[in-house]
Amino acid sequence: EVSPVWTYQITVRRTAKGIVLFPEKKRPEKTKTYVKILGGTLWLSGTAFVCFHFIGRRNSEQRTKDGHTTNNRIEMYRIMPLKAISRAWGKFNQLELPVVLRRPLLGLYVWMFDCKVDEAMETELQNYKNLGEFFRRVLKPDIRLISQKEELTNPADGKILHFGEVTDGILEQVKGINYSVKHFLGPQTWNSNSKKSKRFAKQTDEEYFRGLKVKPGNKLYHCVVYLAPGDYHRFHSAAKWTINYRRHFPGELLSVSPGIARWIHGLFVLNERVAYMGNWEHGFFSYTAVGATNVGSIKIYCDQEVMTNVKHHPDTRYTPGVYFDKDFRENPIHVEKGEMFGEFNLGSTVVLIFEAPENFKFNVNNDQKVRMGEPMGTCKTS
């Protein structure tokens, strides 16, 4: 395969010596488009970084001088054009790379983020047409074995940010930083025939927690798995379960890296996310894919209708609480443990919130690197 980097345009000019042909070097349109989108993405990213760094730093100095704490720097971070940057990055990821550039560019990405190319079905970098194909690379058969002994397995390659029991409707995104199940999942319309919950706005976190109707002898648990840019970008089902409901929150696209998660309270509530609610053998089960900066899109294989990071969606910085639902209860979706569930265009986060018996025990630790299919937790029998 030959990918032309240059073409030639012949210009005919009349001179005193007669007609002369002038060949002119011309860059192809595809390469021009590639360079324009790359340049635009870098310009947006650079401008956002400069604004955040200098204005945010100035606000930080003012806080120290004034002697009290404000959220000015976080607000500066939130007003950066992260959704526009992420859409531009998503388009850039889908542009076909010239063959001569694939190995050096993808090789640089592999080196920077320590990607395990040897685990992929396709190990030749030049055979990936663009960055998007590389992000979504398929692994070799049996490179990830699904544990059959445990009820719950890791849904993705990544790092465990936090896990544990949900207490009174409050859970932790990282140690010491909390957020609310109520605001993360929204009104419990999947438990009723009502399209809107009139009591939702006035519900306390404890009342919302009771509304989940956890069975006697059970508890509510959660686990957060962070996918870094170098990780395998597809995510899988963590258990055998049934999907009854989908809720898409078109939120922000803040970074979900561990450092940002320790800095911004309620980060996962602010960000765009697609939450699926249903049931497994022990009761309530939810699986949420959370978007992040430069995640051009979240794709769910069993729900092709959902579209994320779309320009016409409302800006939730000014209109919070917006979401779009789909009810699957008449035709529920059955998902097997280890089944491919979806993909990110770049690293992001998966959040599991589920009901299980009191003797459920996690087999993971905070900050542990995990691989898809490995044991996450099981119900210990005495």
UniProtKB/TrEMBL annotation:
The modification Pyruvic acid (Ser) is found at residue 348. The chain crosses the membrane at residues 34-55. The keyword tRNA processing does not apply. Pathway: Phospholipid metabolism; phosphatidylethanolamine biosynthesis; phosphatidylethanolamine from CDP-diacylglycerol: step 2/2; Lipid metabolism. Is synthesized initially as an inactive proenzyme. Formation of the active enzyme involves a self-maturation process in which the active site pyruvoyl group is generated from an internal serine residue via an autocatalytic post-translational modification. Two non-identical subunits are generated from the proenzyme in this reaction, and the pyruvate is formed at the N-terminus of the alpha chain, which is derived from the carboxyl end of the proenzyme. Keywords: Decarboxylase, Lipid biosynthesis, Lipid metabolism, Lyase, Membrane, Mitochondrion, Mitochondrion inner membrane, Phospholipid biosynthesis, Phospholipid metabolism, Pyruvate, Transmembrane, Transmembrane helix, Zymogen. InterPro entries: PS_Dcarbxylase (IPR003817), PSD-B (IPR033177), PSD_type1_euk (IPR033661). One of its GO terms (biological process) is phosphatidylethanolamine biosynthetic process. Binds 1 pyruvoyl group covalently per subunit. GO terms for cellular component: mitochondrial inner membrane. It is an enzyme of class 4 (lyase). Its cofactor is pyruvate. GO terms for molecular function: phosphatidylserine decarboxylase activity. It catalyses: a 1,2-diacyl-sn-glycero-3-phospho-L-serine + H(+) = a 1,2-diacyl-sn-glycero-3-phosphoethanolamine + CO2. Residues 1-35 are mitochondrial matrix. The record marks 347-348 as: Cleavage (non-hydrolytic). Belongs to the phosphatidylserine decarboxylase family. PSD-B subfamily. Eukaryotic type I sub-subfamily. Catalyzes the formation of phosphatidylethanolamine (PtdEtn) from phosphatidylserine (PtdSer). Plays a central role in phospholipid metabolism and in the interorganelle trafficking of phosphatidylserine. May be involved in lipid droplet biogenesis at the endoplasmic reticulum membrane. This is Phosphatidylserine decarboxylase proenzyme, mitochondrial.
